[in-house]
Amino acid sequence: MNTIQYAGEWTIVGNIGHLFALVGLLASLFATLSFWQSARTDTPVSPTHSTPNSQSQVWLHWGRWGFILNVISVLAIGIILFYLIFNHRFEYKYVWQHSSLSLPVYYMISCFWEGQEGSFWLWQFWTAVLGLVAMNTAGRWQSRVMTFVGLMQFFLAAMLIGIYFFGYKVGSSPFILFRMDQPEMPIFARADYLSLIKDGNGLNPLLQNYWMVIHPPILFLGFAATLLPAAYTMAGLWQREFSADWIKPTLLWSLFAAAVLGMGILMGGAWAYEALSFGGFWAWDPVENASLVPWITLIAGIHTLIAYKNSGHALQATVALFISTLWLILYSTFLTRSGVLGDTSVHSFTDLGMSGQLLVFMLTFVGVAIGLIAWGWQTIKAPAQEESTDSREFWLFVGSLIMLMLAIIVIIDTSWPVINKVFGTNRAIADAVTHYNRYAIWFGLVIALLSASIQYFRYRHSHWAQIARQIGLPLALSLIAAGITVYGVELRSWVYVLFLFAAYYTIFANLNYLVAVLRGKVRVGGGSIAHIGFGLILVGVLLSSAKKEVISINTLGIDYGTEFKEKDKRENILLYRNKPVQMGEYWVTYLGDSTVAPNTYYKVRYEKKTNANDTPTEVFTLHPNAQINPNMGLLANPSTKHYLTKDIFTHVSSVAQKRDNEVGESLTEMELAIGDTAITNGSLSYSKP
């Protein structure tokens, strides 16, 4: 038994936080069971309607209060954890692991959700907020919808309790003391160990970017929002009813989820462009794919739901797509948090020993959904009459099917680490960008053409001749715009040319539909506006990817050593201070650097001119930064000059080591045996057995 009286610890705060985590877990379980009992005791009025009786109302009342208690607990957990981080309470492992004294306030907010525990709390927080909205807007669907919201909260709450249950650890608490997590460390034999821990481990340098302050909250709001369309879908199966008052909330929630999740994905791309050194916004990283795939199936589900709303067709597809979206969100959680992607992704979390718990989380919702599909299958049978090939619902279904095919292929390729682990295979994708682009571009091309044309079809039956007349002008404008662009940017790949035409066609066809067919009625033109945005994104993706040009060509043939690949040797230039070097149409000069620990900022001047002695027509300075991280090696953040039609992207690929006389006499060599602890510059180092 540990009898040491540790000095300076704030244990009471962490104990309160842990108490709220347990209360939140129990409250979510109570709410789930109460909502379920309320739904189970509904008294049917007709085959398609029911009204809660007095017993059902009592259970509904208790379910609402249970959920409110869960919300209060979630808020309390967040407030307490923020309080510990802002007060630099490094006796708590989570605080020490993700924060430090040098972090500004906005990065201290980022470090809150850098770890698994904080990000699970963020997901739980948004589910609580959306659950409150759903609880007060779902009407007669309330008890069934909230059963699934409560069940989600229960599993998310279980991720934060960090207790042992029959010898199995359930969750990981953000309120565990450092000394309790790693009691074998010799430093914790001292009652005053806190006096030796002067600083925390700090935020991952790659995450020290303003996008990381706003990107995760938006992305997790999108994750949480995907629950609601699935919850309404499962509620419809449970009730065996998919009437008009089911369609409206399901469509609204699915549109909200798609918009927010899409925004989160785009913000992630912006972060990758500004903070990572691959010089692009999308690298087909497994974690990127894990958020993209459920967004694709969600978009497909929205289109089939619209078809069902207007024609009665595609209900089966809608049910499958909305439920699959939730499954894929949970599967992506398993991929990114089980540690299985540790060797293939720069974004994934390390395994906290919760792989089994994550698997149970996912399989529970899979089992519940399968059971409900079996229960309500008779309700979701397709109409006896098939869709006509000249109807809008037919092509909406075709477009959704193509999106589903793309999602399936991407998720299979993303899952190779899991497949390898299960079946003992050893397949890997060497060049992810080339591999995925090889087929994604064709799917994107077809989806673009369909998103441009489908709105010109009528439900149930259309006239091909009328459609041909309506799309004639957009086709002509698209050909002209594509031709001008191809000539201006000198595109040589015929595949890229076709893709560019399809993207322009998406823009002009939907713009024409909005103006000529809808007469400018923006209120009913949401689909057209969304498709125009989609077309603009496709044009930007193509031009930014196809016209990427490296101007830092190593014309002097300097061999930078074996640590550089041959491609990197060709595409990096060594800059000496105050020695201009030509890069494309610019003369580039390294002017010096300054250090604001832990980063070194490099001052690089660009001058646009033909010869070194000419007067420049444009001058600007970029400030890329880099650091040598003891655990991650060189970490570089680029600096970018933005233009309307191009960006100048600059990053540091290697830095010179300081000479000994520049460092001074402050370096001391230490030799640690296994189990030894050393305090270096206020930081804790430990050689673990």
Written account of the structure:
The chain is α+β, with helices and mostly antiparallel strands. The chain has four domains: 1-204, no CATH class; 209-429, no CATH class; 450-546, no CATH class; 566-656, no CATH class. Helix content is 55%, strand content 10%. It has 21 helices and 14 strands. The two termini are 22 Å apart. 40% of the residues are buried. The model is unreliable at 660-667 (pLDDT under 50).
Tally of helical runs: 21
- Overall pLDDT, averaged? 87
Content-based structural category: alpha+beta
Helix amount, in percent? 55-70%
Q: Topology of this structure?
A:
Layout: H1 11-40, E1 43-46, E2 49-51, H2 54-86, H3 93-98, H4 105-112, H5 116-135, H6 142-158, E3 163-165, E4 168-170, H7 178-181, H8 211-225, H9 227-239, H10 244-275, H11 286-311, H12 315-337, H13 355-376, H14 392-414, H15 416-423, H16 432-453, H17 464-489, H18 494-517, H19 526-546, H20 566-570, E5 581-583, E6 586-596, E7 599-608, E8 618-622, E9 625-629, E10 633-637, E11 639-642, E12 647-650, H21 660-663, E13 677-680, E14 683-686
Antiparallel strand pairs: 1-2, 3-4, 5-6, 6-7, 7-8, 7-9, 9-10, 11-12, 13-14
Helix pairs in contact: 1-2, 1-6, 2-4, 2-5, 2-6, 5-6, 5-8, 6-9, 8-10, 9-10, 9-12, 9-13, 10-11, 11-12, 11-14, 12-13, 14-16, 16-18, 16-19, 17-18, 18-19
